[in-house]
Amino acid sequence: MSVAVTSPASSVNADCSSFSLAEWGAIGAILLVWGINNAAAKVATDALPPLLVGGLRFGVALIVLAPFLRPPFPPWKQILPIILLCGPLHFGLIYWGFSLIENLSPMVVALQLWIPMTAFFAWRMLGERMAPGALAGMIVAFVGVAWMSLDPHGAADLPGIALGLVASCLWALGTVLVRRMPGVPPLKMQALTSVVAAPALLAASFAFEGDVVAKAMAANWMVWASVVWAALASTVGATALLFWLVQRREPGRVTPWFLLTPLVSCGIGIGLMGDTLTLQLVLGGGATLVGVALVALSERRAALRAATDRQIQT
Fold first, then answer.
1. Is residue 171 one of the residues assigned to a domain?
2. Is 274 left (phi over 0), alpha (psi -120 to 50) or beta?
3. No. of H helices and E strands in the chain?
4. d(CA 273, CA 181)
5. How many domains does the chain have?
6. Which domain holds residue 173?
7. Is 143 a domain residue?
8. pLDDT digits (tens, 9 = 90+) for 73-87
């Protein structure tokens, strides 16, 4: 999942020009990292307790991100709820969900509902206008997930998918709360989140999950590689690339491309992890992604209209 960021004002020419080769490369790299990361989460939670996986991910990330823990810091009353929602609560639930599923693809598609959920919370909490296209997209996306869940293969994974949906809801709520506070550089935000999430998830793992040490010692290299990938490639690397992109381009031009992430994850799930593919899952997943795309594109159009109105006013 992506990090909520804001970009500085860019020139009109820079915003309207075609993406450079480096920018296309960054978009492709982020898609691959996030797509592989979903599969890595399944590999890790098949061998290790889910809360332990989350704690180790943030622990490794914290080692790299420690230099970003420098003042000034935002007010803790403002930032702590965001950290808790997007850190230990979100990742604790999402890794728990991954540990319960057999098929990766329905879970990955369902997780994209954080995008319409964000639009809904922004409408209810911030008074942002919800365009008819966004509302239609939200309905289509939720119907798609429900249709997937009615498939016998999807229904078997329903407990994990349900946890994933709650995790997406928390992420969406945290994303909306971020809009209420002054901008924090994403890597600094990731560092602050890691400071809280690593000890919280590790403590919860040792308190509530059994045989933590034995399972960690029995894990093979691929399991540990999956944890390190999540920490370094996703938490650090993809975040840095995303921040570089939105510093150069409007977020509304960049973020819709990341809706292709499930295609990478589903390709891995079907091709390498033995996911069962049925027509109902395909139709439900397709409807979900179409609905999510409608929401994302509606938000983009709304942002472009707002930018045009500001230019006219000035």
1. yes
2. left
3. 17, 0
4. 41
5. 1
6. 41-313
7. yes
8. 888 888 999 999 999
